[in-house]
Amino acid sequence: MALLERTGEEVTRTRLAAELGVARSRVETVFPEDGDLFDAITAEWFAPKLAVMDEVMASDLPPRRKMYEFFARRFRLLRQNFRDDPATFNLYVEMGERYFEYARSYIDLGDHYLCELIAEAQAEGFLEGLDVDTAMSLINQMVLCYIQPYMVAMLNERLSEEKLALIVAAIFDGLNAKDGGARGTQDIRAA
Amino acid sequence: MALLERTGEEVTRTRLAAELGVARSRVETVFPEDGDLFDAITAEWFAPKLAVMDEVMASDLPPRRKMYEFFARRFRLLRQNFRDDPATFNLYVEMGERYFEYARSYIDLGDHYLCELIAEAQAEGFLEGLDVDTAMSLINQMVLCYIQPYMVAMLNERLSEEKLALIVAAIFDGLNAKDGGARGTQDIRAA
């Protein structure tokens, strides 16, 4: 990852061997396939994000505080990663798009945790009438700019913990199975 | 734009002249600078989106319905553009990132309209205590996946009018200047 950050380019096993000045066979002992190298990079990238999620899930906060921390802590890490080195951050974003399957299990784990948070919120009467999958999809969409690396980079200064907290509050106070007439039944008329 | 769609590549004035079998000077009469060509492409891309926004703004719908239609009609156009031709759509997205300044005035107009919708909502007691700029930023963030072309392409099947209506309802029923304790003051404790 240091090589990737220094050169601003993806790292293969061949380049890694050249960089380390060792035989390719030695690198292949550790990473039998190129995929094993991507796996290792993905694991390193996600490790701190998983750590903060685990920490929040193990806490005894009330649902609203817990969901806020669940997103806010990851957001702060992503924002810090981006601000420390925007070029490398964007390279990871591109790699994440190209090798999405390597990130799949981490994203699934995040969704699994979010389902737990939804169950805790519903036990207290929030998110009424929504099935868990729909609630999960809606919440992920509403906070997307705070957890999607591409959007964190693009919106940067326009994102803040204060705004995220207000969005989480809107999820708890206003999100349920009824749209209150937003879609309506009649077509629009000119005023 | 037909040339761009057929070749999957950006069009310059030189390529356009070659394609049309006319002298470059003839193309330069219409587009004195390359920027004039980008301007024209941007205008064509935004024209149908502006038309639906104008139509909604001219209607006499109640605020919640109006805000839903404001986003839903653009979302449907973007989704249709993407599904009709994903490769061309992604090319426009990339061009939009590279030549962002050409799109600026259209995005500003959308924000200007959204401010009107916020004023109408606040006149009926919604979005309480939020200044217009903060409300605009929060709402744009909450519906981002439905209006940001890159996210419309990426999320595709996971986006729906039903979900957008529930998000708009959460904006009206749950978004205001209070986070209800989401941020809290104390740090998290282990359970």
From TrEMBL, chains A, B:
Domain of life: Bacteria
Protein name: Tetracyclin repressor-like C-terminal domain-containing protein
Record domain Tetracyclin repressor-like C-terminal: where: 63-168
SUPFAM superfamilies, per the entry: Tetracyclin repressor-like, C-terminal domain
Organism, scientific name: Erythrobacter aureus
Record-linked InterPro entries: Tet_transcr_reg_TetR-rel_C_sf, TetR_C_27
Pfam families according to UniProt: TetR_C_27
